[in-house]
What we know:
This protein is an all-alpha fold. The protein has 2 domains: 4-137, no CATH class; 157-315, PCRA, domain 4. It contains 15 helices and 2 strands. It comes from Cardinalis cardinalis (Northern cardinal). GO terms for molecular function: DNA binding.
Amino acid sequence: MVTFQQKILHLVKCFRRQWPLFSNSERTTVCGADCMLMALQLSMAEVNKQHHGDFTVSLSDVLESWNYLLHDKLGLYENMKEPENYADVKKAYHAFLARSNMLDLIDIYQKCCSLGLLAEDESIYPVQLLEFISGVMNAQENNGSVLSTPTRINRQGQEHVKVAVLAKKSVCSYLSLLVNSKDDLALAHILNVPDRGLGREAFTNLKHASQERKMSIFLMATSFIRTIELGGRDSASSLYDPLRAHVKGLSNFVNFIDKLQEIVGEILNTRIAGGRILSTVKMHLLKGRSNGDPFCQAVEEAVQDLDLKIKNIIDSQQETSTASTTGVSPAR
């Protein structure tokens, strides 16, 4: 019997195999539930900036719009009140994904269904996908387990889970940005991981600058640092350019991504390149931390897990001839 988790994996694999049917770029990436929610939050902040002058949004408003967006995109219309400025928010959300070279799970699901790409035992009902993305299905699946008893999850265990999630998210975000340089969500997560002095203000300044110049946030950061490296600090567009306060941190970030890109370009063996990239990211994240730091152990475990997954993917896809004929680079 095929589980729902396996059906979701089949859905993503279908996208990977048939990517030209979904996008014009092989570097398009999948936007899962957490990224969808973050993209919506940023989109709502943009709309609020236009209507009210503040690049902020309340959590309650985000959750209300999130619930409505999922029902709307899946065609599960109920007696729900449309949130304020929803049409603008939805437009900004899809524009954000397009700029970031991303497709969310609902877009991929609907495309697969319209093209008849899913087998009968891989079919998914809209209400199932709604429950999966909103987290309801995961909660239901855990109802019969010991882990579903909230009174026995101590604070230490909760902290361990948080650190593990942070570590894996950090490593995966570096890989995502390496594959898709337009992935602004991945950049937002790792811009200041490890600490580069690039907090909320730096990200906001970068985002505004990228919007003005109509480019991705990473390209904006790269362009700014290259200009300074080639012409010196005085070559920046303005003495009052807000980005000038973040030169050191942005330089550190851009040059590290350059280092990862060099590995992809120099090492032709995909397995070796993947291992080298993961090792380089690990050393970067652990620099300056003590061995007893829980984050260090979490990063080690995340890297080992991802390294094994990369190996398994390569072992199960010995299709280099297919890659060469479709134009998909082996490094991807």
